[in-house]
């Protein structure tokens, strides 16, 4: 992976899922499944990291990927532009990108923002999850410009 991110110690996870639950989790669930009671090292959780403008996914204590965003004031309501999602190579195939995206979008909507899916992965995800459609705004030139400015 060309982008090397320094792992951060997780604090107060906002959503947790076990590796076993992640691929089967239904995107329509209001919340992620409860964590397993043991100390399974493959337990994963997502945390918003607004200082860096991204949601981070951790597996145990290890940083496994992220989804970058930029918040903007839209014409009708605040928006969050998702423009880059990465799951590091050693964590691929576990359903983490889908879990990361679902959690990030749910938290965005709960926070009163609309979703602008510039990232190809996020764009495909919302196309396949019709429950997201009412919360999605089309990508416009000003969204691309906002990414470039940041």
Task: Describe what is shown at a glance.
By secondary structure, this protein is an alpha+beta fold. 21% of the residues lie in helices and 27% in strands.
Task: Write out key terms for the chains shown.
150 residues; alpha+beta; six-stranded mixed sheet; 3 helices; 21% helix
Descriptive notes:
- This protein is α+β, with helices and mostly antiparallel strands.
- Helix content is 21%, strand content 27%.
- It contains three helices and six strands, in the order E-E-E-E-E-H-E-H-H.
- The protein has helices at 96-110, 120-127, 141-149; strands spanning 15-17, 44-49, 54-59, 62-73, 78-87, 114-117.
- A six-stranded mixed sheet has the order 1-2-3-4-5-6.
- The two termini are 23 Å apart.
- 33% of the residues are buried.
* Poorly predicted runs: 1-41
**Helix amount, in percent?**
10-25%
Terminal CA distance reads 23 Å
| Main β sheet profile | 6 strands, mixed
Strand content: 25-35%
Number of strands: 6
Q: Which structural class do you get from the secondary structure elements? A: alpha+beta
The best one-word shape is globular
As a whole number of angstroms, the C-alpha radius of gyration is 15 Å
Average residue pLDDT = 78
Number of helices: 3
H/E element string? EEEEEHEHH
Q: Reading side by side through the largest sheet, how are the strands ordered? A: 1-2-3-4-5-6
